[in-house]
Design brief:
about 240 residues, alpha+beta, 8-stranded mixed beta sheet, two-stranded antiparallel ribbon, 14 strands, globular
């Protein structure tokens, strides 16, 4: 539960890509910088984190505080050299909350079987297969799902599975857990191993007030494995 993100949860943006490749909207760009942690404070009475100049968009609908990061834009377009291994917190949250295509921010592919997601083959659970799997990757439209399968090095190497999920349920957040430091300032809690890469479920209400989120995670329910080539051909 640190700022480091899980490679399994971020397969579409965790690898290098050629300059001609489509750049997902959620991919961070050179020059985009996180907000200074000096703006982060402790609520009175040990009730968690807050920004000293907090605004209504700083928390999600479940009250979790989100990491701020500048955006490199020219008008409505995101510009700058992609940082392929990094995801922009606000843009990832925007696509995941609104269930928008992570590349074009338009409506993703959606049928009676559900929303279209991509995953690497090794990400399946050991007992229930794809049912209940967690993802920090927003859904995709058909056009950009096809492009991701062809251009994402991680998916090419690992093998891609296309999933339809009828219920992409909000699960929790990836980010950093804080505590009150000896100087009365917030300090991050360090974790090792798998715990460092694990999303914090929203149901852990004792910890969520102390969490600074950087990615939103959904749990996929009502999952059907589909053939992407067949979907593209039918469309």
């Amino acid at each position: 539960m640190t700022r480091a993100t899980s490679r399994e949860l971020n397969s579409l943006t965790s690898t290098h890509a050629p300059p001609s490749c489509l750049v997902p909207y959620i991919t961070a760009r050179q020059g985009e910088q996180p907000d200074s942690l000096s703006n982060l404070g402790l609520r009175p009475g040990g009730k968690g984190l807050f920004y000293v100049n907090e605004g209504p968009g700083d928390r999600d609908e479940r009250g979790v505080l989100w990491a701020r990061c500048s955006q490199s834009r020219h008008g409505n377009d995101v510009v700058g050299t992609p940082r392929w291994r990094d995801v922009h917190p606000s843009r990832q949250r925007e696509c995941m909350e609104g269930l928008r295509c992570q590349v074009c921010v338009q409506q993703p592919s959606h049928t009676q079987l559900g929303y279209l997601f991509l995953a690497a083959q090794h990400e399946a659970g050991s007992t229930d297969g794809w049912e209940g799997c967690l993802t920090a990757q927003p859904p995709l439209c058909l056009e950009h799902a096809k492009a991701a399968v062809e251009q994402c090095g991680h998916l090419v190497r690992a093998g891609t599975v296309a999933l339809r999920a009828r219920v992409p349920r909000l699960h929790g957040v990836i980010g950093a857990l804080y505590r009150a430091g000896a100087d009365g300032r917030p300090e991050p809690v360090e974790f090792d191993g798998k715990l460092a890469q694990s999303p914090l479920p929203y149901r852990h209400r004792q910890l969520t007030p102390w969490f600074l989120a950087s990615q939103l995670v959904r749990e996929l329910r009502g999952v059907t494995v589909v053939d992407l080539d067949d979907l593209v051909s039918a469309a």
